[in-house]
Amino acid sequence: MTQDWSQDIVERVGGELRRLRGASVPPLSAQALADRTAALGHPISRAVISDLETGRRKGLDVSDLLALSAALRVAPAQLLFPKLPRGVVQALPGLDQESHDALRWFGGEIGLLVEHSEWRDESTGNQVSVRTRDEFDEGLNRIGVTREWLRAIAAMRSARVQLQRALRDNESVEQVDALEFIYENARAQADELADRMRALGLDVGEGHPRA
What HEC string does 75-117 produce? Predict the structure, then answer.
């Protein structure tokens, strides 16, 4: 089953490569795509691209996936889950998910939907199989807290811009106070999340990144 799943990944990546080359304006030849990967510092030959697109390739390196997605100017996850949003895809061997769910799992937003058989029907007492979403391990998951931190920084910057505009346009004291509250709240949240991230061993650095 694992071999079939691995080949399925290669085939859907290859199919999306072929579709994206044809959808480019003007259409992008396999050689042109190969040239782009070379310019990125990770050359992938035209022959390898052809083998991916025709299904002859039996494996796919992560480095190739990243270089190809950068060369095509799309996210790596689009090559892995091209049937967005509702097409069914095997996220893991034998585990089907709708592509939008697989995408969000890959990006660290939500866990996968997994069948559990330990549930029981309250009226009959019989075991029933239900699908529930696996949760990420909070002690290991660095993506969730990083995403929250970036959102807080974006909110802080947005509020600061609005505050500066309100001061420039001589808005009411109430409006300025409300914007100051929003800004300070977002900044406090960003700082609190940064402390949580440091406790998890993340390198937050100095200042706030562009979010």
Answer: CHHHHHCCCCCCCEEEEECCEEEEHHHHHHHHCCCCCCEEEEE
The rounded Cα 37 to chain-centroid distance in angstroms is 22
Across-strand partners of 97?
89
End-to-end CA distance of the chain: 41
Residues 105 and 191: their CA atoms lie apart, in Å, by 27
- Dihedral sign computed on CA atoms, order 183, 189, 193, 198: positive
Give the count of beta carbons closer than 10 Å to the beta carbon of residue 190: 22
- Summarised one tens digit per residue, pLDDT across range 135-188 is 999 888 899 999 999 999 999 999 999 999 999 999 999 999 999 999 999 999
Cα distances from 105 to residues 15, 42, 153, 200, in angstroms, run 22, 27, 23, 21
pLDDT of residue 84: 96
Alpha-carbon distance of 11 to 90, in angstroms, equals 12
Reduce the DSSP state of residue 197 to 3 states and report it: helix
CB atoms within 10 A of CB 94: 10
